[in-house]
Amino acid sequence: MDVPLHLWDVKNNRSQGKSTEAQKINRAINRIRVDVNRRYQELMQADGYVTATKLKNAYLGIGVKQETLLKLFEQHNAEFEKKIGYSRAQGTFARYRTVCKHIREFLPSTYHREDIPLKELNLTFINDFEYFLRGEKGKWRNTACSGA
């Protein structure tokens, strides 16, 4: 993230001011801090110690096989499709595909990424997705059923 020099507060390591840009920068910084703290806690619970390199790699997802939402959703849909006509219905499959499509549109527009590790899914993610469906997509009225 690039921060204009006139907005940066060196003492507090944050953007200064109340502008939309400053608030956006500070929200991103807060998200990074929360993610780093969560990774730190996970490493402490798993290994009992943390190094700067381990923490950096865990935060960046380096050397860690991560299950991701869209990958898992697509896997689910592929398995579900095989069962259509036997124990699963075509209409339900269409709904799953639609939700997957909405997530595929949501992630780049809101999280600026193509997929998201399951470990990063939380209430904020769910609320953001709901907001996306309600506001930006205007598809909240039974969005899973809409093929749009």
How would you describe the overall organization of this protein?
- The protein is built from 5 helices and 2 strands.
- It has 148 residues and is mainly alpha-helical.
- The chain has helices at 20-47, 52-60, 69-82, 90-111, 123-136; strands at 8-9, 14-15.
- The chain has 2 domains: 5-60, no CATH class; 69-136, no CATH class.
- The chain has a two-stranded antiparallel ribbon with strand order 1-2.
- Strand 1 and strand 2 form a beta hairpin.
- The protein is flat.
- It is 59% helix and 3% strand.
- GO terms for molecular function: DNA binding.
- InterPro entries: Integrase_recombinase_N, SAM-like_dom.
Give the helix/strand class. Answer: mainly alpha
Task: Encode the helix/strand succession as letters.
Answer: EEHHHHH
Quote the beta fraction: under 5%
Kindly state the number of beta strands. Answer: 2
The residue fraction in helices comes out at 55-70%
Instruction: Give the overall form.
Output: flat
- The total of helices stands at 5
Sequence stretches where pLDDT stays below 50 over 5 or more residues:
none
Taking Cα atoms only, what radius of gyration do you get, to the nearest Å? 19 Å
Largest sheet report: 2 strands, antiparallel
Widest beta sheet: strand line-up: 1-2
